[in-house]
Design the sequence.
C-alpha cells in the first residue's frame, strides 16, 4: 500500500471564484522522492500545504500511512517541512533551532544531544552551532532548516522551493546534498519546485501541474521522452522544445513557411486522420553532422544562424525555420557562427505530435 | 564618506543643539542645585547664575533628602509606583500583545472592524472616561485597592495598535514551523512572538512605565489610604504639608524626576519609535 494517497483533492480559497487545485490524485510509495513542478501559481504550494495541514482541504481525501488525515493537526501527521524562506527561529542559536522540536516532544536530553550532534555533523554546521540565523548565509540557513527537519525522524518530508533563494552554484551543491540525505534517511519526500532541472535531477517521479490540474505523473525520463501534452513537452527540457504548426500531406508535413519535409512511413502512420498538427522536436534531435544527414537525407533542410549560445560543453544555435525561431543543440565540435548557412535534419522518430486543438500528444496506438 | 566640511557642520550643529538643550535644562538644573541647599541659601540668591550652582558638597548637602526620606513615607510611595508599573508592564504586554496578535494574525469575523474600533478608541482621552472607570471600580468595591487601580489601566488601544503593526509583518512560516515542532499557539506567543518583537515590547514597557509614573488623576481618585499612594500623589501630599521646606520639596521632586530622566536617556530610541509608530521594521 502506498504511504501517501491523495484522492480527488480540490482546493478553493475563500474569496476566489476558481479552484486553485482541482481533482488531484496521486499515490506516493514509501521512500519515494516526488517532485511537484509547474509554473508559478499552478497550485504546488497549495497542494503541499494541504498535505501538511496548513490549508483546509476543500474536498477529497488525504491518507498518510493508511489513515485519513484531512482533519488531523499538522503536528500529528508525522511530517517535517522545509520552507522557502527557511522559517528559522531568529532568536535561537543553530543548535536551539534544531533541538526545539525534540524538546517539545519530551525527548530525553541525552538523545537530543546525540541527534543534534549528528545533524550538525552531516550538514557541516559544526562551527556555526552557537550562531543565530541572522549571522548565517542563505545556504547555511537552509541547512539549519534541513537539520531541524531531519532530527525529528518523521516519515514524510515536505519541501517548498527550499533552494530558490540560493544562488545557482549553491543550488547545485545543495541539490546533491538533499538527494544524498534522502538516500541515507530513506524518508518519503515531496519536493516542490518551479525549476524543472531540480525536478529532473532529484526526483524518482515528477508530478507536473498547470492551473491547479495535474498534467502528467512519471519518472523524469518518461516525461522527457513521452510528454502527454504540449505543455509538459514545453515545460520539461532546456532549451525549450521547438513547436511547429504543420499541415499533414501524403508525403509528410508542410511547415507554415511552406517548407516540406518527407517523413518515414512509421512516423507518417501516426498522423493518419489529421490534417493539421503541432510538431515538437527537441534541440538535440536536430542534427547537423554528416552521418545523420545521410541517414535522414529526405528530411534535410537549410537555414541561416541568427544567434548562438556558447555554453562550452555544447552550443545552442538559433535560426528561423518553419515560421518560428528554432533552436538546435549541438556539441562543441560543431562550430558555427552567426550568419553561417547550415544544413540540418530533424530526426523523424524523435518528433512529437500534438493535436492542434486539444494539445494532447498523438501516439501511434490511438 | 564624511567629508571635512560635513564634519565641521556636524560640530556646529552639535554645539547649537547643546546650547538649546541647556536652555530647556535650566529648570531641572535649578531644581537639582537647590535641592541640596537649606532654605536660607535658596532664598538668598534666586536670580543670578549662582542659583544654578550646587553648594559645596560638604557633610550636610544631603540634609533635605535625608529629612524627607526619614520623616515621610516617600520611599514607600516610590516602591508602590515601581510595583504598579512592573505589574502593569507585564499585564499590559500580555493583554495588549495578545489582542494585537489576534488582530494581526488570527482570522475571525469582523477583524478589520474591530481594528477600526480600537483605533477610534485611541482618540478618546482618558479624562473623559475616568468618571466611568471610577464608578465601575467603586461599584465593584475596589476603591483604594491595588486591583481597582490596575484593572482600568491594563488595556491600552494605542499599545494594541502598536503590537498589531509589528506582528502583522512577522512571517507566517515561522508559526507553521513551530506548529510542526509541537509549539502551541500560547507557547508560540510567549516564546517566539515576544522575543522576535523585542523592540516593540521595550517601547510598550517604557510607555507604560512613564504612564504609570507620571499619572496623577487616576491614582488620586482611587487611592485614599496612605499605604497605597503612588509617588506623584505622595509628592503632592508631602509638598502641600506646611512643615515641608522648599529645599525638601525640591528634593522630593528631584527624586520623582530622576527615574523619568534615566528612562528617557536609556530608551530614547524606543520612545521615538513608539511615537512614530511605523512598526514596520523589526530586527
Ligand atoms: N491564501 C490564499 N488565498 C487565496 N488564493 C491563494 C492563496 N494562496 C494561493 N492562492 C492562489 O492559488 C493559486 C495557487 O497558488 P500556489 O499554490 O501558491 O502556487 P505555486 O506554489 O504553484 O506557485 C494561485 O492562483 C494563488 O493566487
Ligand atoms: Mg509556491
Sequence:
Amino acid at each position: 500500500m502506498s504511504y501517501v494517497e491523495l484522492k480527488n483533492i480540490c482546493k478553493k480559497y475563500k474569496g476566489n471564484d476558481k479552484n486553485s487545485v482541482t481533482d488531484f490524485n496521486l499515490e506516493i510509495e514509501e521512500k519515494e522522492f516526488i517532485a511537484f513542478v509547474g509554473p508559478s501559481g499552478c497550485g504546488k504550494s497549495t497542494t503541499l500545504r494541504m498535505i501538511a495541514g496548513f490549508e483546509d482541504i476543500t474536498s477529497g481525501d488525504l491518507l498518510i500511512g493508511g489513515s485519513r488525515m484531512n482533519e488531523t493537526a499538522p503536528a500529528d501527521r508525522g511530517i517535517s517541512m522545509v520552507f522557502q524562506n527557511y522559517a528559522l527561529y531568529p532568536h535561537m542559536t543553530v543548535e536551539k533551532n534544531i533541538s526545539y522540536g525534540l524538546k517539545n516532544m519530551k525527548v530525553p536530553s541525552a538523545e537530543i544531544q546525540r541527534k543534534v550532534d549528528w545533524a550538525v555533523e552531516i550538514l557541516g554546521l559544526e562551527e556555526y552551532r552557537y550562531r543565530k540565523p541572522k549571522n548565517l548565509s542563505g545556504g547555511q540557513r537552509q541547512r539549519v532548516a534541513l537539520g531541524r527537519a531531519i532530527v525529528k525522524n518523521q516519515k514524510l518530508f515536505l519541501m517548498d522551493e527550499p533552494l530558490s533563494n540560493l544562488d545557482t552554484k549553491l543550488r547545485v551543491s545543495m541539490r546533491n546534498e538533499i538527494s544524498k540525505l534522502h538516500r541515507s534517511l530513506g524518508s518519503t519526500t515531496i519536493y516542490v519546485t518551479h525549476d524543472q532541472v531540480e525536478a529532473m535531477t532529484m526526483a524518482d517521479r515528477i508530478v507536473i501541474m498547470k492551473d491547479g490540474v495535474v498534467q502528467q505523473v512519471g519518472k523524469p525520463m518518461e516525461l522527457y521522452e513521452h510528454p502527454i501534452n504540449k505543455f509538459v513537452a514545453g515545460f520539461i527540457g532546456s532549451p525549450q522544445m521547438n513547436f511547429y504548426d504543420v499541415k499533414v500531406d501524403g508525403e509528410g508535413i508542410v511547415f507554415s513557411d511552406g517548407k516540406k519535409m518527407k517523413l518515414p512511413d512509421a512516423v507518417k502512420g501516426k498522423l493518419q486522420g489529421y490534417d493539421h498538427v503541432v510538431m515538437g522536436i527537441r534541440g538535440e534531435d536536430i542534427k547537423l553532422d554528416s552521418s545523420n544527414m545521410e541517414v535522414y537525407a529526405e528530411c534535410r533542410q537549410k537555414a541561416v544562424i541568427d544567434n548562438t549560445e556558447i555554453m562550452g560543453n555544447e552550443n545552442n544555435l538559433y535560426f528561423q525555420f518553419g515560421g518560428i525561431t528554432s533552436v538546435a543543440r549541438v556539441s562543441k565540435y560543431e562550430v558555427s557562427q552567426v550568419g553561417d548557412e547550415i544544413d540540418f535534419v530533424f530526426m523523424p522518430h524523435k518528433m512529437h505530435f500534438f493535436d492542434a486543438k486539444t494539445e494532447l500528444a498523438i501516439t501511434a496506438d490511438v | 564618506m564624511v567629508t571635512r566640511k560635513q564634519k565641521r557642520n556636524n560640530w556646529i550643529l552639535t554645539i547649537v543643539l547643546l546650547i538649546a538643550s541647556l536652555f530647556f535644562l535650566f529648570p531641572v538644573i535649578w531644581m537639582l542645585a537647590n535641592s541640596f541647599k537649606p532654605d536660607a541659601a535658596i532664598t538668598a540668591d534666586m536670580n543670578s547664575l549662582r542659583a544654578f550652582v550646587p553648594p559645596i558638597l560638604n557633610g550636610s548637602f544631603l540634609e533635605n533628602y535625608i529629612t524627607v526620606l526619614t520623616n515621610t513615607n516617600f520611599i514607600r510611595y516610590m516602591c508602590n509606583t515601581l510595583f504598579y508599573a512592573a505589574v502593569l508592564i507585564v499585564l499590559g504586554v500580555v493583554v495588549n500583545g495578545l489582542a494585537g496578535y489576534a488582530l494581526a494574525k488570527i482570522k475571525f469575523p469582523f477583524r478589520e472592524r474591530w481594528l477600526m474600533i480600537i483605533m477610534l478608541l485611541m482618540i478618546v482621552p482618558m479624562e473623559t472616561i475616568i468618571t466611568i472607570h471610577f464608578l465601575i471600580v467603586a461599584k465593584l468595591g475596589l476603591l483604594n485597592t491595588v486591583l481597582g487601580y490596575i484593572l482600568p489601566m491594563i488595556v491600552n488601544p494605542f499599545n494594541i495598535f502598536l503590537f498589531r503593526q509589528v506582528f502583522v509583518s512577522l512571517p507566517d512560516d515561522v508559526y507553521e514551523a513551530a506548529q510542526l515542532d509541537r509549539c502551541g499557539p500560547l507557547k508560540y506567543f510567549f516564546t517566539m512572538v515576544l522575543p522576535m518583537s523585542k523592540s516593540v515590547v521595550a517601547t510598550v514597557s517604557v510607555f507604560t512605565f512613564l504612564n504609570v509614573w507620571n499619572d496623577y488623576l487616576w491614582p488620586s481618585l482611587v487611592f485614599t489610604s496612605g499605604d497605597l499612594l503612588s509617588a506623584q500623589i505622595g509628592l503632592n501630599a508631602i509638598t502641600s504639608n506646611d512643615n515641608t521646606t522648599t529645599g525638601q520639596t525640591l528634593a522630593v521632586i528631584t527624586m520623582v524626576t530622576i527615574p523619568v530622566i534615566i528612562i528617557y536617556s536609556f530608551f530614547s530610541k524606543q520612545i521615538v519609535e513608539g511615537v512614530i509608530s511605523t512598526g514596520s521594521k523589526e530586527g
In short: The mean pLDDT of chain B is 90. Chain B has 14 helices and no strands. The pocket of adenosine-5'-diphosphate (ligand 1) is lined by residues A 13, 16, 20, 38, 40-46 (CB under 6 Å). Chain B touches chain A through 16 residues (CB under 8 Å).
